[in-house]
């Protein structure tokens, strides 16, 4: 299955949807979202928490300044998005 998969019905069949004229007409495309693996989630959470600490708590790390804390936060979000969009990642 790819990232976008065709599905016959988004909600499945139920008694209330059986009378709907649009049920069974092909449905649409939806994104195959998967939960991120635990290591990716932990890495993302640690980076995000670190970025918040660098920016608002004034924690000093030689490589990271408060000016590039947003970059670290964006990297953490990109890792989390990759874990959600890419299966088995």
Automatic annotation (TrEMBL):
The chain crosses the membrane at residues 38-57, 69-86. Keywords: Membrane, Transmembrane, Transmembrane helix. The keyword Membrane applies. This is Uncharacterized protein.
């Amino acid at each position: 299955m790819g990232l976008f998969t065709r599905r016959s019905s988004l909600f499945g069949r139920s008694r209330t949807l059986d009378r709907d004229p649009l049920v069974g007409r092909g449905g649409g495309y939806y994104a195959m979202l998967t939960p991120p693996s635990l290591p990716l989630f932990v890495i993302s959470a640690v980076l995000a928490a670190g970025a918040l600490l660098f920016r608002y708590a004034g924690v000093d790390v030689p490589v990271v300044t408060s000016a590039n804390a947003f970059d670290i936060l964006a990297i953490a979000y990109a890792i989390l998005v990759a874990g959600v969009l890419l299966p088995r990642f």
